[in-house]
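Let's practice the habit of predicting before peeking. Look at the sequence and jot down your guess about where helices and strands might fall. Then scroll down.
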Amino acid sequence: MSNGSVELVGVVKRYGDSPAVKNINLYIEGSSYCCLLGPSGCGKSTTLRMIAGHESVTEGDILLSNRNVTDLPPRRRGTALMFQNYALFPHLNSLDNVAFSLRIAGVAPAERRARAREMLALVNMEDYSEALPDQLSGGQQQRVALARALINQPEVILLDEPLSALDPFLRNRMRTELKRIQKQLGITFIHVTHSQEEAFALADQVVVMNNGSIEQVDTPPALFSAPRTAFVAGFIGGHNIIEGTVHNREILVSDGIRLPLPPGTEAREQPAGVSLRCDHISIHASPPTNTTSLPMTITAVEYQGRYVQLQGDCGDGLSLAVFQSDQDYLAHPSREGDTVHVSWHPRDLNMLYRTPEPSGVSPFVKPINEKPIPQGETHA
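Done guessing? Here is the structure:
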């Protein structure tokens, strides 16, 4: 197991009788960038704070670099939490904010200031070492807070929605900076966000959470190509969710709509339907030959810049969203009320299931030790 790895073994968090996190098993590789993704109230920030030691664990174990840290205080875990509001001391300049923990630890003034300058240079803030927090922009304050989190050389950096307060331009710029710093230092980053775009841009590993449980763990490309549940497909966006029952390699949406499934598809567990990416649907003026197609009446047209989103009704309760390139749309524009024909390849239908991620299906979920690991000890 690599340095900086994080493992959650049967972790539960309850507030009274209300479960906030439900029996999570998760392995995060050391030196990787992991994003916990999900809506407000799904348990992602609670999970982050349990890793940091700012929330107690009701049941289960948390391991850092193969060391059980479940009951250790935050300062002894080897983690650093970067708060959402940055929490800079308003009366200290950037240099002293970054050096504050070293000052508390009794590090000599010259050494702590030299190390603080190194951290400010890492986040491109060396020219603002004398500035007070209220003299800095939101993005600059965030860089100072990140430098402060990094100065004690933690094994794991924990970030709680660090980009949510920034405007879109700064958010994109800081995404690039966070990824650069993580790669340069080789430190494990665990980043909480509700933004699919943010998670996909940053993460090696995305953990989608819902209602206190893990729905799916995967790489961004695999997650987008093959969401496991209807919740995941709906939350990450860009997918149609088609409900139906599987029979004889088809999904039966209604008596009149039967959609062929990809060759070799097996209906594991109890399927809840399929997802179909909006950008994998083709638009035709007339029924195409040699492929299955459905008529669709356009109900809405929305111009999105790089593409046009067409919403349409295929009858029998089936509605579809289609992403058409702006070039294709402008060459053959569709209007509300027009009838077109839509088609896709059967391989583009992705099976959805009713249950969240089972233990062991993800390459990121490793076999775990069933016995509690003694405090501070390791296991193979």
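How did you do? The mean pLDDT is 89.
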